[in-house]
């Protein structure tokens, strides 16, 4: 997977109908994508399995679907108006625009990799044991420089000190990755929220924002959910929905988009119990990803070194994307910050009366927040495989196969009559008519059976059922497994039961 180029994956995703650039006939819109016929199925399955695992399986979590447009005061209370900024800079030679933090972070990473390579070479030359690496590395000039860059970067970001970032770029002569030039404009801040107008008359219109995260809908509706759903602490509210961020540089395919979808859950707990719930959700969420087939070696936790002033702990579940480990999901212990701020700004009490304790308090919050599109990208990039496979003639050919978890596969099963003859077709169509009430099923009679298998391998279809000569004699069919290529012969009358067992969401949830 590491050799998989993101451009190649994007081309494949477009060709197969997973993802298209938005408004392509008008040359596209940066950082905005449409989900095609296969993509929308994959995305909906991911959302459904998250919802089932979070809401249906947890007695104390309920769902919500808050509106995208919210009262403008929400974003003042949340801190987004004041602090949801990214620092941006333009290179004077290439005219390219960058987010300063990613520019510096990527440069520091390059320095570190260079240091590592050099030290490894030295170790080999001097015949030193691998244990000597850490010590040599920390003494290396480039390594030290990378650490220093990061430290200055974090300090400047924490205090939103943009002139300090301008000085950092100048003093450290950070080059533009495109032109190599070190001539930069001063660093400016850029609010990531999209704004729009509410109201028909320009003078009276109110400025609204498209929500940059779904979480605030949950906080604002907290008292209503508490009351109407009669919740008792600890409890959670889950939501799936679109979020919008005017990202300075939208790139790496659907990793960083301007319109994307989040699945967030806020878990409200008694103050003092947040550490145990944070640990609980950290493990639970990692397990969910693994249970859907993301390999453990492609997942890791990255605890935040610098925390927001109100946060007690924060970690990212990172996934090894084709361009390296990056954030897939965030898990945050956020204290009573959000509810307290909304209480302050709205003048309404956002408290919980704890009968056991006989007192009221503002609950603490543990948040889990994952981007659906990043999840789609993680699964596509891990599942995409090019490998040699046997041909019907006994030779070998390369096949492209999407090894998705069967529950995620857009088309669950494909049905093929071996030859285009009436008696084969009749049986195949009858099976199709039965199965389509249960799964998304494809039926195909065109081209050789080998080509049909390959076509559905590339779409990620886990089961292919063939009606062949023997079916006409004894009413059995073959079921071909996408990954192992093994073919099993089972009775036609048993196909539904066979697939129902293999594609059972309940069994998957039971072992979660
Ligand atoms: P990053 O550091 O990558 O910008 P973030 O820390 O700002 O992400 P959060 O605000 O914690 O992200 O958002 C929660 C989740 O939403 C992220 O883990 C990610 O999966 C998703 N997400 C955030 N921004 C985007 C985006 N621009 N495009 C796609 N998904 C996103």
What's this model, at a glance?
This protein has 17 helices and 23 strands. The chain has 512 residues and is an alpha+beta fold. Helix 5 crosses helix 6 (132-139).
What does this structure look like?
- The chain has 512 residues and is of the alpha+beta class.
- The chain has three domains: 6-68 and 214-380, Bira Bifunctional Protein, Domain 2 (BirA Bifunctional Protein, domain 2); 87-189, Herpes Virus-1, CATH 3.30.40; 411-510, Rossmann fold (3-Layer(aba) Sandwich), CATH 3.40.50.
- The protein contains 17 helices and 23 strands.
- It has helices spanning 6-15, 37-56, 73-77, 80-83, 100-125, 132-139, 141-158, 162-171, 215-228, 274-291, 337-346, 372-383, 422-435, 449-459, 469-474, 495-502, 505-510; strands at residues 19-21, 33-35, 61-64, 85-90, 97-99, 188-191, 195-198, 206-209, 235-244, 259-269, 299-303, 313-321, 324-333, 352-354, 359-361, 364-371, 384-390, 396-402, 413-417, 441-443, 463-467, 476-481, 487-491.
- Helix 2 (37-56) packs across helix 12 (372-383) and helix 7 (141-158) runs antiparallel to helix 8 (162-171).
- The longest helix has 26 residues, at 100-125.
